[in-house]
Amino acid sequence: MRVLLILAIFAMTAQCAFADDGFVFVKGGKFLMGSPESENWRSSDETQHEVTVKDFWISPYEVTQSEYSRLMHDNPSSFRGDSLPVESVTWLEAVKFCNAKSDSEGLTPAYKIDGAKVMWDLAADGYRLPTESEWEYACRAGTSTPFNLEHSIDADEANFYGHYPYEIEENYFSQSKLTAKPGIYRGETVNVGSFAPNKLGLYDMHGNVGEWCWDIYAAYDASLPTGPESGTRRVNRGGGWNDFAKNMRSAYRAAAPQERRLYNVGFRLVRGAAGTGIIASQAVQEAAKSGGKAIIVFFTWSGNTQGIAYEIQKQTGAEIFELVPEPAYSENYNTVLREAQRDQHRQARPKLKHNIENFGQYDVIILGFPNWWASIPMPVASFLEEYDFTGKTIMPFCSHGGGRFGQTLTAIAKLAPKANITEGLSVHYSGGGRLKDDVAKWLANNR
Questions:
Q1: Which of 50, 202, 368, 396 has the fewest CB atoms within 10 Å around its CB?
Q2: How far is residue 284's CA from residue 336's CA, in Å, rounded to a whole number?
Q3: CB-based contacts of 151: which residues, under 8 Å, 6+ apart?
Q4: Cis, peptide link before residue 327, omega less than 30° from 0
Q5: What would the mean pLDDT of 75-85 be, rounded to a whole number?
Q6: DSSP codes, 194-253
């Protein structure tokens, strides 16, 4: 089997070369970016369209902690190990690393950085982040299926929340139809290159850590291969160690503010100019904390999120509001699992029983929810679409069974693109005896 794999990789890379730094040369071409409407669990922002990608070089591996700390004299990662991918690194820190590596090797830095403003010199020969189209082209390696293995991925083939393989949601109680069965959940990153590569010889394109891309998040525009020039979120791709398989698909797009550290997001480097000239991008700055009025808004089912919400209220004195869908979800655990995944699959927007009067008076929304199937419950999506969050600050908190925030923060970032999102608080189930201290520390860090 291993010999066949090596032969398959050789066949795909015969037209490629390897640079002195070990990077893989990727021959450009046209491909269909995004997902077909028939792809299960696709998101509405994955509209399929033809894209032309130019030649570029890409690292076989995610940037490791030893690489990052050697140049930046810092290691922000929550899991520690020289060969583990660096994570909890912001997009801005990633582009600074690109320039530092270019400088160390006598190359022209790709980026001109002035605070939050970053300009990309396309003629530079230095290291940089891939564009979204480059990343997906490299990830797919000629495939058009949800994963580049051309079959559903399992925990022996990638590092993710292995209990939840692709399409588990609708087959949770009868798993005979699953092509990939539930497997191990490691709950942490693993050394880069721990699994077999794709047909281009690239490792961990699915799982381990998500990977920052250059692009600003927005609806696809085929005329803009590098994405829009302005916006509030940066794209990351590939999914991480705590993601469900549905959010590791080749077409799945995650997004977050460029100043935000995410414990399941790192990056991978590329080289190769797409042309000449300058691409400039200015991220919207975080809204200043004005000390304005705050409200705690939460959705709960089992009561765990409610308990966290009332602890926050006790420590802040903020007003509190519960999101109640109408009709309510079932009180039976097995039934509510089906209802939750059904609503997420349909991207339903349940009607909310009550409204917040004079929502404009609140500057800070402390938003709580359980992590349901690696995303927000759909009543929270209804709330985010019902009100105007322009200029407001969202402080997210969630209860979870092991996956922390999953892709809930991406869901919030997409649904409230004009809000500032602070560091979140993830609580394992009800939080136990540590809840009071954990809430106090989180609130202090967000003041």
A1: 50
A2: 39
A3: 145, 179, 180
A4: yes
A5: 98
A6: -S---TTS---SSSSSEEEEEEEP-S--TT-TT--SEES-EEEES--TT--GGGGSTT--
Question: 416 Cβ partners below 8 Å, 6+ apart?
Answer: 384, 389, 392, 394
Q: Within its chain, how far is the Cα of 22 from the centroid?
A: 27
Predicted pLDDT of residue 191 = 98
Arithmetic mean of pLDDT, 288-317: 87
The model's pLDDT over 156-211, given as tens digits with 9 standing for 90+, comes to: 999 999 999 999 999 999 999 999 999 999 999 999 999 999 999 999 999 999 99
Mean pLDDT of 282-293: 43
How many C-beta atoms surround the C-beta of residue 413 within 10 A?
23
Q: Is the model's pLDDT at 420 over the cut of 50?
A: yes
pLDDT at 5 exceeding the cut of 80 = no
* Beta-sheet pairing, 56-58 with 24-26: antiparallel
Q: Report whether 111 contacts 271 (CB < 8 A).
A: no
HSE-CB at 84 with a 13 A cutoff on CA atoms is 20
Query: If residue 39 lies in a helix (H) or strand (E), which one and from where to where?
Result: none
- Kindly report the length of the chain: 447
Written as one string, the DSSP assignment of 114-150 is: ETTEEEEETT--S-BPPPHHHHHHHHHTT--SSSTTS
| CB neighbourhood size of 392 (10 A) | 19
Assess contact for 238 and 159: CB atoms under 8 A: no
Structural domains for the chain = 2-283 (3.90.1580.10), 293-445 (3.40.50.360)
User: Is the separation of the CB atoms in 109 and 124 below 8 Å?
Assistant: yes
Give the pairing of strands 230-231 and 420-421. unpaired
Percentage of the chain exceeding pLDDT 70: 91
Alpha helices per DSSP H over 387-426:
408-415
Whether the pLDDT of residue 49 is over 80: the answer is yes
**Would you say residue 251 has pLDDT above 90?**
yes
CA 432 to chain centre: 28
Q: pLDDT tens, 342-383?
A: 999 999 999 999 999 999 999 999 999 999 999 999 999 999
Name the nearest CA neighbour of 227 among 126, 146, 144, 130: 130
127-141, 207-221, 272-286: which has the minimum mean pLDDT? 272-286
Question: Cα–Cα distance between 143 and 246 in angstroms, integer?
Answer: 17
How far is residue 395 from each of residues 107, 376, 406, measured CA to CA in Å? 41, 14, 16
Token digits for 70? 């050697």
